[in-house]
Structures are given as C-alpha cells and as structure tokens.
From TrEMBL:
Protein name: Uncharacterized protein
Length: 382
C-alpha cells in the first residue's frame, strides 16, 4: 500500500492510495488521476442528480402525472425514479427477449404488451407515495408484474362487483352534522360479533374500548347472552360514533336508522347468574357500587365470592325481589336452575305433623296444698 501524489483531471492536486504489484501501480496511478478529485466528483454527481430530477419533474408536469407525497428530497428523487420506471416499462414491452422471458421463465404465459402497459399505468395512478419508488427502485419488471397484476388487471365481472360495492357502501353511509373527519367507520354486524374498521385514531380507540370492543386485527365485540343482540350493539356503537363526530357505514338499513335515531335496547350490566358447581345464584354488576354490595350482602346466607355476591338457590325468592328492585336480569342458566329447584320441591312429601303436647312436670306439693285434706302434721309450724 502506498500513497501517490498528482493532479486530477479537474486541476486539483491530491493523492490516491494504490495497492497491488509494483508493476501495475503506474497505470493505476495514471487512471486514477485521469478522473476528477473526490470532491469534484461528488459535486458532479449532485449536479447530474439535480438535472435529472428537474427533467423528470418537467416530464411529470407535461404528462400530468399525479403528485407524490413525502419529504422534499424524497419527492424529488422519487419523481426521477418514477420516470425511470416508465422508461423501463416502455423499453421492455418492445424487447422481444424480455417478453419471451416473462412467458418462458417467469410463468406469465398469457401476458401481453397491453397488460404490461396497464400495470404501468396502474402504478402511476395509484402509487403516489415517494417511498414506493424509493423502496422498489431495484426491482425488475417481473417483480412489478407479480406484485401489481392482481389489482391492475381485473375482469369485467370484478370491476362491476367493485363498483357495486362502492355504490352500496356510499348509500349505507351517514355523516353527522358535527363531523370531525371524512373517513368513515365501517361497522359490520354478524350473529356472533360486531366489528368496526377505522384508521388509527386515539379518540376512536378510547370510545370503542369503553363499549367493550377489543383489537383482534380489527375492533370487535363478541356477542353473548349478556351483551344483547348484535343489532342493538351495532346501533349503539353507531350512535356513539355519530355523536362523537365520526361518519359511519352500516349496510343494514334498519340498524343504520336505529343508530341515527338512538333506538336500541340498552345493554344490561347487572346479572343474576348461576354457578353449577356450587349450586348458588351469583349476583354480578359492572364497576364498584357500595350500595348494591351492602344490599346484596343483607340477603339471607349471602357471602362474597369474587367477583360476585352468592346466595344459595333455596333463597331464590329473596334474590328475585332484589333483582326487581335494582333492575337485574337472570341468565338462562339461573332461570333454569330456579325452575328445576321449584320442580324438585313438588316431589318433596308435604305432611301435616301431629302436634304433641308437652307434659307439664307434676307439682305434688301444690296439689296437696290445694286439696281439701288436712295439712300434714309434719308440715305444720312448731
């Protein structure tokens, strides 16, 4: 390794580090100094890059291409990369070897020149994030085709179906007069769950979480005996979102109207359940409520068994009175257990027991004193 000094083609003096056999170093030195110095070369690259970006921007304006999003530097570079991609596609479709290779080596047997240009146009129209062109700048033609062909080339049937879906969603969407966004929360109703899709938003997240929704790839609420009907929960969710300023989309017209008008059955959060193993009625409610707890604990034989106050099934009448006073509902299992207990009571023998009079212990002295006989001599006073 040795340093050699000289003058670069740009006129600046400097040095270069040359390694290898001594006999080769002279021509390596000559070749190195026939180039620009590192600083001038870097400046030259910047100028060429700026020139290419400017030309690409002018072409983009001339071709009326969509504007790209990103930082200023990202957009400037991505515009050039996009133009390179356009040129690459245009040159490829006219290259017979490329077209043959797509068919024979990459499995695109029926792809045509028109298909490739359609994919090109799809990318230009739909990929407006500068990051897309930067991240994929090294991809080959077949990479783009494989990634984008499904969305770019669709059958007439698929296009008709897509348009129908868009139209249906549009007519199923309502906007609140106090809307805070144009993005729509899509609510889907199924028998066993209600789901809602929306972009990342903290206010939205807090609202759906307060209604019992959990993130499972999308926000969803499982429908059980204790939640009420799916349609009611969907209408409730829609109503809360509308009042918070979020547009909603619900396909079912009745559920959508109920959301707008606030017509849904309130979710019951106070339940009398049944614990099969312990054969007890379990009094449950959401949140802390000292009054409910104290009143429930006054029921005969009650005790705390987290997370409920439990009472023996034999005390079902007292529990029914408690439930009526405080708007509790009985689960199906609890109702069944009570009915079975009542039925069991019917098979119990009911008898009228004979009442036995208790014998009163004899008071002999009293009898003597109350008798007409003379007082016994030995009982008289001296």
């Amino acid at each position: 390794m040795a340093w050699y000094y000289g003058t670069f083609s740009c006129g600046h003096e400097g040095r270069v580090n040359i390694i290898g056999p001594t006999k080769d170093r002279e021509w390596k030195k000559e070749r190195a100094f026939n180039k620009m110095c590192p600083e001038c070369w870097e400046k030259h690259l910047d100028e060429e890059r700026e020139k290419a970006n400017k030309e690409a921007a002018e072409k983009a304006k001339e071709m009326e291409l969509p504007q790209l999003t990103g930082s200023e530097k990202q957009v400037a570079w991505a515009i050039t990369l996009r133009q390179n991609l356009i040129n690459y596609f245009n040159e490829s479709v006219d290259d017979k070897m490329v077209m043959k290779g797509l068919s024979e080596y990459y499995g695109f047997i029926d792809i045509t020149k028109e298909d490739i240009l359609t994919i090109r146009d799809y990318i230009i129209e739909n990929k407006t994030d500068a990051k897309y062109y930067i991240d994929n700048r090294s991809d080959r033609l077949w990479d783009y085709i494989e990634r984008e062909i499904k969305n770019a080339i669709k059958s007439e049937k698929e296009l008709i179906e897509e348009k129908a879906i868009v139209d249906i969603k549009l007519e199923s969407t309502v906007y609140p007069d106090n809307k805070i966004t144009n993005v729509v929360a899509e609510i889907t109703v199924k028998d066993d769950k209600v789901t809602v899709m929306f972009e990342k938003n903290e206010d939205f997240r807090q609202l759906v979480k307060s209604l019992g929704y959990k993130w499972e790839g999308t926000w969803e609420r499982k429908i059980t005996e204790y939640t009420g009907k799916a349609e009611d929960r969907a209408a409730e969710l829609g109503n809360k979102l509308l009042n918070a300023g979020f547009p909603i989309m619900i396909l079912d017209e009745q559920t959508r109207n109920n959301a707008v008008n606030g017509l849904y059955e309130q979710e019951c959060k106070r339940w009398i359940k049944f614990r099969e193993k312990e054969k007890v009625l379990a009094i449950s409610w959401q949140g802390r409520d000292d009054k409910l707890y104290k009143t429930a604990r006054k029921l005969p034989g009650s005790k705390w068994s987290s997370p409920s106050v439990v009472v023996k099934i034999e005390r079902y009448k007292e529990v029914e009175e408690f439930a009526q006073l405080f708007d509790f509902e009985f689960s199906k299992a609890a109702l069944k257990a009570i009915e079975e207990y009542k039925e069991a009571l019917k098979n119990v023998e009911v008898v009228a027991p004979v009442k036995v009079e208790e014998n009163t212990p004899k008071d002999g002295l009293k009898e003597i004193l109350n008798s007409s006989m003379k007082v016994l001599e030995d009982l008289k006073d001296d």
